[in-house]
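Annotators were shown the component list below and the corresponding predicted structure, then asked to write short factual statements about the assembly.
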Amino acid sequence: MASYDHQIPPGGLGKITLKVKIHQGHFTKAARVKTNDPKLPHFVLRLSGEIIPFIKVSSPRIRLRGFCSDTLSKTVKLEALDGSMFNISKVESTLPEFKWSVNPQKDSKNYQFKFQIKSDVPKNVRGKITIFTDHPHKNSLVIYVYAYFRPRVKLKPKRVYWKDFKQEALQRTVYLVIKKPDNNIQIKKLIYPEKLFKVSWEKINAKQAYKIKVVPIINQFPSGSFNYRLKVITDPPLPYPLEVTLSGIAKP
Amino acid sequence: MSFMKWKWLFCLLYLYIGCVSAFSSQPQLVCPSLTHDFGKVWEGTPLVHSFILKNTGDAPLIIQSVKPG
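Structure shown to annotators:
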């Protein structure tokens, strides 16, 4: 934000006042000034400095990545840079299955704040942790968390399509890929319209994967577009559905 | 002197006055410092600074705009 004297009379003094808002760290801010002085029609004013936080958070933005059903955790160091003692009074978070613990270090000026999150379904998580303190100048700290829970098992592709029923190219292949190798997951059952499709599967041992072959039974299809689902039931069962869309156009 | 000569003299005088006034009457900006370092400051401290400008010319100095960036 800038405020300034628009006109300075000959021999007179004027001022340009700049105001900046910075939350943390080193900063440099500039402002471009335009005047009617033919020798100095424009110039740049610069402000710089360093903002010291009352409580330093070692990682204010955290990225976590892991498999779903696993617990993802992180430890963050909180340090009162002004030497004040403080206590953590409350912690709030929007993250799934959020748990936290805290270990004070030496005097109550430093803490190891540990948290963990978990999700049984594959998803991207964006959330924040708000730590409330009784520090005289800093009553809350915010940590932003981005987490990705990868699926342990997934189907590739998620959709198979038949443009037309040509006898020589009827088979489609879907792979069930086991992403987490220590997982002993097996196909228990496949649910699909059995009158319309022939489905078989085999295990690819070298790749921790299953190959699912899908062939439509042409003479059973009424002409026109179709859209069905192939559901994979595993052993042990997964907390999220494994499905492939079977779609296309059946021509008479 | 004929009318034409007077006319020429008048034009030259007009040009001379115009040039002299244009070159002599100008604003001149003097700014002792174009940068300011706040140093290390605690968070929440208001970050406000005024840069002092002096007009040492003989025409008004106009600040047309101050834009961040």
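Statements collected:
1. DSSP finds no helices and 21 strands in chain A.
2. Chain A touches chain B through 49 residues (CB under 8 Å).
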